[in-house]
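Let us practice reading a record.
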Amino acid sequence: VTEAQQKVNTMRILLVMISLMVVGASGCNNPTPPDQVAQDVAAAQQKAAAKIEQARQDAAKNAADAAQQAAESPKNLKNSDAQGTFDLAIAKAEGQHNVALEKCLALAGEAQRVCKDQADAHYDLAKDYAKAALASQKQ
């Protein structure tokens, strides 16, 4: 994955994150008290950060392993990089989805349902994008 591709991927992920934050701020059955929502959002953000860091570490380890095997098959290195990028994108999407769902709990009734539906749609879109990127990068 080139640096330019990584920047594009990062920008797309940031766009999804911003969209999710807007959805969460705009307002979804019975609302959860704001202090509880804040705690739950913070916990979800911490958990997401930990998962993302673990995905980064795993991708780095897999890339190092693939680099050792690159002499035998250069294709392994490219596929390992693609898989690492995919795993990281999925970890970020899951984290963003969980944070967005926690924010939806601050809303009530129909607004909460709409918020959750939008969060799910953004999550599905992020997963589909990651899968498409993986397929296009693998040989």
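A brief commentary: The radius of gyration is 17 Å.
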